[in-house]
Automatic annotation (TrEMBL), chains A, B, C, D, E, F:
Coiled coil: none
Alphabetical list of InterPro entries matching this protein: 4-OT, 4-OT-like_dom, Tautomerase/MIF_sf
Protein name per the record: Tautomerase
EC number: 5.3.2.-
The protein's enzyme class: isomerase
Top-level taxon of origin: Bacteria
Protein family per UniProt: Belongs to the 4-oxalocrotonate tautomerase family.
Domain 4-oxalocrotonate tautomerase-like: 2-61
Record key words, sorted: Isomerase
Keyword check for Transferase: no
Residues annotated as the enzyme's active site: 2
Cross-referenced SUPFAM superfamilies: Tautomerase/MIF
Organism (species): Leptobacterium flavescens
GO MF terms held by the record: isomerase activity
Length: 67, 67, 67, 67, 67, 67
């Protein structure tokens, strides 16, 4: 009965990538803990870069400097 | 001082349904644990069907098959 | 496919009360959103009163004053 | 390696306020626990007032009465 | 900067299994989204079977029936 | 009505430090967003170092190397 929450910044994650994350996380729980995929939930939470902070600044500001 | 998070897929939950979820969850904590409704928070988190996975696939794909 | 997290202070919640919370929350999602109980998860998270703060102080300190 | 989630109602939080929340929360973990800012994550989750309940009613309804 | 929370029932997850979950989840985010492992957090939350409900009953009760 | 969750590794956080985190986080929400302290919840979640991963390994293993 695992529940997996994946939080990433909202920076163009495609539907294919979401499917791959869900498939991969579900498989991981089966491989490591022998969990039944049917009762494994995966929730992807995309966070605006204004709303995610690292080292005391927003990812928006970090990305600007990276350009 | 309970905090309740309700995560559901974003599939047309109405304002009336949200009010009913909030009222019901608050009442549940009062009935079972005698908690004060005034200090009970309920947060509803609606998740896109592309972002919720069960059994290794997205709810979007599951819904397509159900039609 | 709902997921419900109930956070309460760890103050002697009994097994019977946990069962009642789980049963009640699951029923609520069925009543309001017609969700299938079989795919409804409820997780109860008990938090030490030292670790829960309201109005800027711990519940431990609040409880002391209430005595 | 702290992770801090700040949930507030979505009521016009500005980019400057988000930056101040991220900076302040990161500083707090450094001041109190001597954590390295570089490995401190802060995530701000803005919740629609229809989706946040207090005392059994939505913040939308509470706000209406306050006017 | 991903953050991954894995919630499973507390049923004897070993240190080796935890390491495998952390390694696997971190690799998944690198493979699918090209995320830097150094800034990927994985948190495993083990939940008592009394505190996890499925289909309106605790996992403790479900496990009893399975024996 | 803010809710703040602070997740840190369980490495000897004292009661005084918890009080300081709760007081500081509550003050931050008042300073930045003018939130009422009385309706601000802060929850501290201490995570075993075996259960927290960074860069694909547990904090337990990272700490061993640091010695």
């Amino acid at each position: 009965m695992p529940y997996i929450k994946i939080e990433v910044t909202r920076e163009g994650v495609t539907r294919e990538q979401k499917t791959a994350l869900i498939k991969g996380a579900t498989q991981l729980l089966t491989d490591v803990l022998n969990k039944d995929p049917k009762s494994t939930f995966v929730v992807i939470d995309e966070i605006d870069t204004d709303n995610w902070g690292v080292a005391g600044e927003t990812v928006t500001d970090i990305r600007k400097r990276e350009v």
